[in-house]
Backbone:
């Protein structure tokens, strides 16, 4: 036998083997950086909330690994703004004693 056989499990000569070609993406010098999503942020009229919407824009220029920090910061800011609504304007006094009847003045 003069034909040389390739042992099982050994690849044939890559120069002459015909196999499926894997398409490759063209190589570029630099990978593209983060791209903004282009989501419109419409101001709502509350300065505290609007400031947090502006802060969200910071995530547009960060890699995905940096998004979490921005989102957590915005979440804290929005939670604080919502909590401020509960406090509302007016005198700040000590919280009511739990279980104490509310004082109502029903005199006319």
Residues:
């Amino acid at each position: 036998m003069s034909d040389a056989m390739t042992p099982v499990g050994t690849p044939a000569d890559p120069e002459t083997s015909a196999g499926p070609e894997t398409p490759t993406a063209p190589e570029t010098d630099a990978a593209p950086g983060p791209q903004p999503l282009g989501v419109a942020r419409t101001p709502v009229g509350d300065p505290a909330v609007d400031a947090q919407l502006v802060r969200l824009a910071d995530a547009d220029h960060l890699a995905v690994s940096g998004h979490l920090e921005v989102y957590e910061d915005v979440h804290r800011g929005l939670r604080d703004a919502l909590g401020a609504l509960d406090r509302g304007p007016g005198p700040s006094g000590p919280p009511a004693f739990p279980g104490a009847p509310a004082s109502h003045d029903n005199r006319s």
In short: Helices lie at 47-56, 67-87. Residues 67-87 form the longest helix (21 residues). The chain has a mean pLDDT of 74.
